[in-house]
Design brief:
Layout: E1 5-9, H1 17-26, E2 31-37, E3 56-61, E4 64-69, H2 73-84, E5 90-97, H3 109-119, E6 126-131, H4 150-169, E7 177-182, E8 190-192, E9 208-210, E10 215-217, H5 232-237, E11 241-246, H6 253-259
Parallel strand pairs: 1-2, 1-5, 2-4, 5-6, 6-7, 8-11
Antiparallel strand pairs: 3-4, 7-11, 9-10
Helix pairs in contact: 1-4, 2-3
Length: 266
Amino acid sequence: MKVRKILLTGDDGYNSIGTRLLIYYLKNRYDLFIAGTQVQQSGVGGYVNVGKDIRWKEIEVDGVKGLAVNGTPADAVEATYAYCQRKFDLVISGINVGANIGGAFFSSGTIAAFIRAHFIGVAEKGITISQLTLDPKTWIHDHSKTKDITSFQKYPGEVAFKVIMKSIRENLWRATLLNINLPGKKSSEIRFTKPIYDLTQFYSYPGKINHPKRIYRYPMSIINKKFPVMYDIGALHEGYISISPCVPDLLNEEIYRKLKDKTFSL
């Protein structure tokens, strides 16, 4: 896989720890550009501010130029494409603080950023990369306030870099999207996994509902339960790096092929 131009994005903010780690390891190898959000946007999924003015500004992070928007990760990708009108060989979204596993794909701004880029033709292939953290406060923390990233360079930075380089050499194992999750502690062992689909097996459901105040709060704690290593969270709990090969659309190709030539009348 020939890669020269990479779009960096994510949902932790344009100058997050994860973005800066990727810049540190990749800027001397590739032509990088940043499509970022001005502030932390975890959990916004693929939300786009249709019909609204999205303010943007030119940015430079550790020598790499880009665009930051006062919107969502999907907005950032859209605005960046309009701004520079460039196609990229690869999108790398992350390094996200907090794992992106199973059905949580659909609420992840990190993953949605690549999906948006894919469907507007910015890049055909992508890598989303996250690190498991058990402290829910880190999932929505403003990581841009961390000025010195030295303590993060060996892990997750260097390991993420090695996984990315291996994935590029292997042409992403022919996948359109690799969703990569790093365990909490440093590891060099990789397993290919499938997503765990039942989020109630990982997060402490149900969430908290306050009847008098009409307030609901999402579950912010994790169930300490073992899963088979064939699943993303099972591999992470066993200390493996998890790689799930994914497709960005929801079409069930097998069923479609069976039904595509059929017509029905009501």
